[in-house]
């Protein structure tokens, strides 16, 4: 009996080496799963390639424009992707997976495409309304930039044969704000379930960990105001803030205005190993975002047996039944946030009844493979 020849598939990703992001984690997990069923060509930027010894995997690279001001220079990456297809005369019979659907913006080939949409933030930031003026001190520049991004993203999404996103919440927001009147499949993000040395009691009981690259959207001002409310009840309360943000100086001034210089520690951007250190050190992870399409960092914190306070405006709420130490808050309810933190700090820190099997990277990649195999 003749061995059935594997079909070819092309994986386009701006992040492959970088596993700190949801895109990088998904790309690595999906590559492992795809290579068992397909011959895979990965196209990524220079510096993101990995050493993969599987004969079914080959890697091509492109060079992004250093003058590109978009996040991860995705616009110039998209331009170079189309040029790579032309220069290498890649077959139109190969299905193309864009790990970030907007990076198909300049794609002009007739290949079938699957694009993954990770968020809807350009539509929200691009508005000139009371909410953005209230929450973002740099709203004029932010509005201009994201209006442009919104138009480019809409155009890119319209080019995809199939669309997938990371939560039902994100899907609904995309259909509402991007006017995407078409089927969008939903596959929740997953994490790598690696062995961990977990502690029964956090190193600092009255400590809170916040991690995010956009302090205002991810709710750091609300968290600081909640800590101010709790400071007299918990004199040892501490908040560790990980991440970089162009508004750091404004947040630092706010910290001083609230009198929290001794309670708040800014850590900057942390490597994964350092993130793990603070997951172990702190008793609470809190990120009360104004909106969060999914929130992979919530899963990471839960996996470290932390109590996690997430926003009601987040995709992770769809998995609430699987995690007993996952709490939700209205991101604008400062008093409610303070009350939840108080209840956690006042109680015993016991390991939660959390089920991670449905949110593993392995399960996530199997769902993508099932979706891709439908048409095979």
Short description:
The protein has 376 residues and is α/β, with parallel strands linked by helices.
Helix-strand layout with pairing:
Blueprint: E1 7-12, H1 22-34, E2 38-45, E3 57-62, H2 74-87, E4 95-98, E5 113-117, H3 121-125, H4 130-135, H5 139-158, E6 162-165, H6 168-177, E7 185-186, E8 204-211, H7 220-230, E9 238-242, H8 248-257, E10 264-268, H9 272-281, E11 282-287, H10 296-303, E12 307-311, E13 326-329, H11 334-346, H12 361-373
Parallel strand pairs: 1-2, 1-4, 2-3, 4-5, 5-6, 6-7, 8-9, 8-11, 9-10, 11-12, 12-13
Helix pairs in contact: 1-12, 7-11
Walkthrough of the structure:
The structure is a single chain. With 376 residues, the protein is of the alpha/beta class. It folds into two domains: 199 residues, Glycogen Phosphorylase B (Rossmann fold, 3-Layer(aba) Sandwich); 153 residues, Rossmann fold. Helix content is 35%, strand content 18%. It contains twelve helices and 13 strands. Strands 3-2-1-4-5-6-7 form a seven-stranded parallel sheet. It has a six-stranded parallel sheet with strand order 10-9-8-11-12-13, with helices on both faces. Helix 6 links the parallel strand 6 and strand 7. The longest helix has 20 residues. It is globular and about 65 Å long.
